[in-house]
Design goal:
By secondary structure, this protein is α+β, with helices and mostly antiparallel strands. It has one domain: 2,3-Dihydroxybiphenyl 1,2-Dioxygenase, domain 1. It has 1 helix and 6 strands; from the N terminus they run βββαβββ. A 4-stranded mixed beta sheet has the order 3-6-5-4. A hairpin with an 8-residue loop joins strand 1 and strand 2. The longest helix is centred in the middle third of the chain and has 13 residues. The protein is globular, with a radius of gyration of 14 Å. The chain starts with a strand and ends with a strand. About 5% of the residues are buried. Keywords: Dioxygenase, Oxidoreductase.
Length: about 90
């Protein structure tokens, strides 16, 4: 990964989340007292949630699906919860 950033969005919006790549290489799991820790993402439909779950599984990520949302962890130990918007 080079020195850059990744911007992600949904529904044609400019960007919802910006992520850097320049301080991540070799960073390891974050300390429990530092940083974000968890992230909630809302998607418009259950079908979209199912597509995301399949992509995560295909990429080798373990996910937990409680019927309302899926939960996984990023490489730095942050919990990522993705659910259908209400």
């Amino acid at each position: 990964m080079g020195r850059g950033a990744l911007f992600v969005s949904a529904g044609g919006y400019h960007h919802h989340i910006g992520l850097n790549t320049w301080n991540s290489r070799g960073a390891g799991v974050r300390s429990k007292t530092l940083g974000l820790g968890s992230l909630d993402i809302a998607v418009p439909t259950r079908e979209e949630l199912d597509r995301i779950a399949e992509r995560l599984r295909f990429a080798g990520h373990e996910i937990r699906d409680d019927g309302n949302r899926i939960t996984t962890y990023d490489p730095w130990g942050n919990e990522v919860r993705i659910g259908q918007a209400v």
